[in-house]
Design goal:
This protein is α+β, with helices and mostly antiparallel strands. Helices cover about 20% and strands about 35% of the residues. The protein has two domains: about 5-45; about 80-180, no CATH class. It contains one helix and eight strands.
Length: about 180
């Protein structure tokens, strides 16, 4: 027993189907026609006639800003550090961040606590040794004559290590392996 028989008689059901086909069929034809016009227009060549693909940029930027600028470590030892006292820091987490670029750009994510808010983070980074070990010496400096509240100061920083020639490298922070990467 057809489902429509309980709501409509057979004549009403046929009329309803004819109306549905006429209405949707006409709209469907219009939609298909618009889609074909859109495809033809989108695939047409450009007005200037050029169909060449984009080319890679091989020249430095016109504004003089280098895209391969050397990495500057904002936590490197400062000239006035010899007047300060070297202190500890408490590292809770260290990981490597490898950016998807060519060549890969490597950063060190480091978080933990400084002994007081008066301590400043320092990180001395060495160039890779013959075994491709990059050693990072992380510590704090502070003025021992300054009065400072005795409370831990949480920090989370990203330190750019730079880009490296092809090879397998390991990064060591305060004598412990932080991670390895391939460049």
């Amino acid at each position: 027993m057809p489902l429509t028989s309980s709501f409509f008689d057979q004549e009403q059901s046929k009329e309803l189907r004819r109306h549905f086909v006429n209405v949707t069929g006409g709209k469907m034809k219009l939609r298909i026609m618009l889609l074909l016009v859109f495809i033809v227009v989108a695939c047409a060549p450009l007005a200037d006639g050029s169909t060449e693909p984009d080319t890679a940029v091989t020249n430095p930027p016109a504004d003089g800003i280098s895209t391969n600028a050397p990495f500057i470590n904002p936590f490197s030892p400062k000239p006035g550090d010899q007047k300060l006292t070297r202190g500890n820091l408490y590292i809770s987490e260290v990981s490597l961040v490898i950016r998807e670029s060519y060549p890969p750009q490597i950063s060190l994510a480091i978080s933990g606590d400084l002994p007081t808010p008066c301590h400043e983070l320092r990180a001395k980074i060495t160039s890779p040794d013959p075994e491709n070990r990059i050693v990072v010496d992380a510590y704090s400096v502070f003025d021992s004559n300054a009065a400072c509240i005795q409370v831990l100061e949480t920090f989370q920083e990203y330190i750019d290590l730079g880009t490296f020639p092809a090879g397998h490298y390991s990064v060591w922070v305060n004598g412990e392996l932080a991670g390895e990467f391939d460049s």
